[in-house]
Write a structure and sequence with these properties.
Layout: H1 3-17, H2 23-44, H3 53-57, E1 63-69, H4 72-82, E2 86-92, E3 95-101, H5 105-124, H6 130-143, H7 150-158
Antiparallel strand pairs: 1-3, 2-3
Helix pairs in contact: 1-2, 4-5
C-alpha cells in the first residue's frame, strides 16, 4: 500500500467521521494527519553523512572500505565538505575501517587525500605540549648551579 493510498483512505475516513464536527475539531484532526504523514516521510528519507554501519548497509548499494589510522573527528570535518555517506568500524585501538558507498568513491578519494594532507601538516606544525615544556623547564632548573644569597648577607654585615 503506497503512501498516497494511505492518505486517500485516511481522508475519506476523516470526512465520513467529520459530518457532525465543528471547524476547530476538524482543523485539529487535519493537523494530526499532516504531522503523521510528515513523520512517516521523514523516516523514509535515507540519512546522510556519518552514520552507523547498519544505516549505511540499509542504503542497498555496494559498499567499499579503506583502512584508517588515527583521528576520526578530523576526517568528519573533511568529509562534511564533500557530502559523502560513510561509517567507521573499529578494528583495534586507534584503527578503523572506513566504509562508504561505492558510487561515492571519487568523493571519498578526494576527502581522503585532503585528510592525509591535514594529518601530514599537523605533524610538522605541532606545538610542544604543556607537559613536555614543564619537563624541559624542570630539567633546566635542576642542571643550573644553585646560587646562594651570600652577597646580601655580606652587605648587611658591612653596615
Amino acid at each position: 500500500m503506497s503512501l498516497q493510498e494511505d492518505v486517500d483512505n485516511r481522508t475519506v475516513a476523516l470526512s465520513v467521521k467529520a459530518t457532525r464536527l465543528t471547524a476547530q475539531v476538524l482543523m485539529k484532526a487535519m493537523r494530526a494527519v499532516i504531522e503523521k504523514i510528515q513523520k512517516e516521510h521523514g523516516k523514509a528519507q535515507a540519512p546522510q553523512g556519518r552514520q552507523s554501519v547498519k544505516q549505511l548497509m540499509n542504503h542497498r548499494s555496494a559498499i567499499n572500505s579503506i583502512p584508517l589510522d588515527g583521528d576520526t573527528k578530523l576526517f568528519d570535518r573533511v568529509a562534511r565538505k564533500f557530502n559523502v555517506d560513510y561509517s567507521f568500524h573499529k578494528t583495534g585501538p586507534g584503527k578503523y575501517l572506513l566504509l562508504f558507498k561505492a558510487g561515492q568513491a571519487d568523493a571519498i578519494t578526494a576527502a581522503f587525500s585532503e585528510f592525509s594532507k591535514l594529518v601530514m601538516a599537523r605533524g610538522k606544525n605541532r606545538r610542544p605540549r604543556v607537559h613536555e615544556q614543564l619537563e624541559k623547564f624542570t630539567e633546566r632548573i635542576r642542571t643550573q648551579p644553585q646560587q646562594q644569597e651570600r652577597t646580601r648577607e655580606a652587605s648587611r654585615d658591612e653596615r
